[in-house]
Amino acid sequence: MQLLRANAEYVVRSVGAPIEISHVLVRDPAKERVPELERERLTTDPEVLLGDASVDVFVEVMGGVSPAKSYVERAIDSKRSVVTANKMLLAMHGPELVERAIARRVDLAFEGSVGGGIPVIRVLREALASDSVMRLSGIVNGTCNFVLTRMRADGLSFDEAVREAQAKGYAEADPSLDVDGHDAAHKLVVLAMLAFGARVEPHDVPTEGIRGIEPIDHRFAERFGFVIKHLAFGSDRDTSVELRVHPTLVRRDTALANVNGVLNAISLEGRALGPTLLSGRGAGDMPTAVSVVADVLDVARARRSGVSGLATRTIQVRHRPVSSLDEVFGRYYLRFQVHDRPGVLARLAGALGDAGVSIEQMVQEGGAGSSGVPVYIVLLTHEAREGDVRRAMEAISRSEVAASAPKLIRIQD
Prior knowledge:
The chain has 413 residues and is α/β, with parallel strands linked by helices.
């Protein structure tokens, strides 16, 4: 509403007609809202919107799957275009909603669903339409990025950083969807739909959050020249797609390593274009509003020009299997807490060697060699198959030298 009012003259020139908000569906009409929103437009009855034949475009920003999915389906079935910022709905039902929109020859636009104000959806749908995307990676959850930034910069614990994020409005009262990685996984599924034409289920994406990251990991990462970021990865493997979400060690001098706070950044690599990086505010009311209003203008122009649905018809999606993490090759940071006894280092190296994993660097923190007090040992591996690394870690965790479960963090080269 604020953007539409502020840019009213531009909207008329761009679309050829004003954009008018007819109704706003809310749960609580008594809640305080922006002054630009007239109270008479508020309603708690979805039929007021869905049953009004004069409405051209429906905007869904309520979040969640139910009842949002049924409202979006009814809007599409009535041959009205839909603009949504609902990444959960798109991750779980995006392909079927796209097919529904194509069948009714209307648009389903969703720029605001990933990256807030970063135009990554538009880049994938339009700017890279002549190229094929080979890989993508990035920071797509501002809450995780803020928490990791505060832990690294000021030595906060995970719980302290989450409480600060909640106090600043960057995290929900229950931050699980963000800090456990599921929000990033939903966004990755949406990106994979456009980048790789992949129809996948969110539960098929290997997903790891940041709860297991401790201050000691930030200290060791700094020592080795890395920064810990929570990243989403996607790659086209021809017969499958590699999709994963997890904490990652990123070299300190790279662009992603220097994207801090609640900012997002997404790297795309086209076969012809090569790498490109999009960065900016990935969350918040106004960045998301910029994307949502841009979609509204696009679908309004298409409707007035008689080409509704043209942009949505370019989305072609098919079922594609997700590669197993066991088959991923990479380098790894491995943190072990072990009893400080003679022969411990030999046991660790032996278990890794038996699995075919070679060690690049090894550092021990604490201990005098035979005190028996648990100490930390951190290893960086050479490139190895993840299944082999995990096999070695399981063998070590079952041995008498292990004082706690080991920690694995992948390294981005």
